[in-house]
Amino acid sequence: MTGTTTDGTPRRRVRLTREARTAQILEESTRLVSQHGFYGLSLQDVANAVGISQAGLLHYVGTKEGLLQLIVEQRYDRRFDPEAYIASGDPAATHPDGASFPGYCRFLVRNNAAEPQLVRLYMVLGAEAISPEHPAHGYFDARPDATWELYSRTTWRLPPEVGPWEDARGLVEMAIEAMDGVQLRSFRSPAVSMEEGWARFEQVLFPSPVWDGYR
Fold first, then answer.
1. Is the pLDDT at 46 greater than 80, yes or no?
2. 42 and 63 belong to one structural domain
3. pLDDT tens-digit map of 119-174
4. Could you tell me what percentage of the chain is helix, strand and coil, using 3-state DSSP and rounding each to the nearest 5?
5. Are 116 and 61 in a shared domain?
6. Are 171 and 158 in contact (CB under 8 A)?
7. Which residues does residue 4 pair with via DSSP β-bridges, in sequence order?
8. Which end of the chain is more exposed for a tag (fewer CB within 10 A), N or C?
9. Are 99 and 149 found together in one domain?
10. What is the predicted pLDDT for the residue at 49?
11. What is the domain extent for residue 148?
12. DSSP track, 117-130
């Protein structure tokens, strides 16, 4: 069995390392889920796209739910966390008093804009997972707490008027929710770029003069 490519032409089977095959499975399944959602995903379509049998695919992912978990954990969650922001060398991230949270938001938006397929994946799964029966329902329910815990491992430089980081959770959650809206708007017509849309929200969430010098 050779499988088929996305345009239906035969794909020659190539022997890959486990790591390379897993990466290929993640790439193709991310594309398919972002287009059709989890419920519209066919394991056979994934198998065809990577040129292996469905039984061979299950050897790597176990189940359809296992494939979804792999996508979320290895394709979406391992992206652009505060450590990556600091490692970027951005002066706003490496200030001796702590990283800039508005700067981190811009970092997230800029990198998300460069990977629209992953943004679409997140939005499609998030909408589907409203249903308690969806296998990602628990993940999205737990995401606000998990995100706050992740961000709280970083030292942030905040204006005195904002207070300590522990008091900033409401602001952080509003920023994330605004970012979700900006991402959704970028897929509508006429499209507004993520960076352009975020610039408007940044003025409201992190206004002058309070945040001047902390961006």
1. yes
2. yes
3. 999 999 999 999 999 999 999 999 999 999 999 999 999 999 999 999 999 999 99
4. 60, 0, 40
5. no
6. no
7. 10
8. N
9. yes
10. 95
11. 79-205
12. HHHHHHHHHHHHTT
pLDDT digits 0-9 by tens, 164-214:
999 999 999 999 999 999 999 999 999 899 999 999 999 999 999 999 999
Run of H or E including 54 = helix 54-61
Q: Give the Cα separation of 212 and 191 in Å (integer).
A: 30
CA distance 6 to 181: 31
Looking up residue 64, the CATH number of its domain turns out to be 1.10.10.60
pLDDT of residue 125: 94
Using CA atoms, how far apart are residues 120 and 34, in angstroms rounded to an integer?
Answer: 6
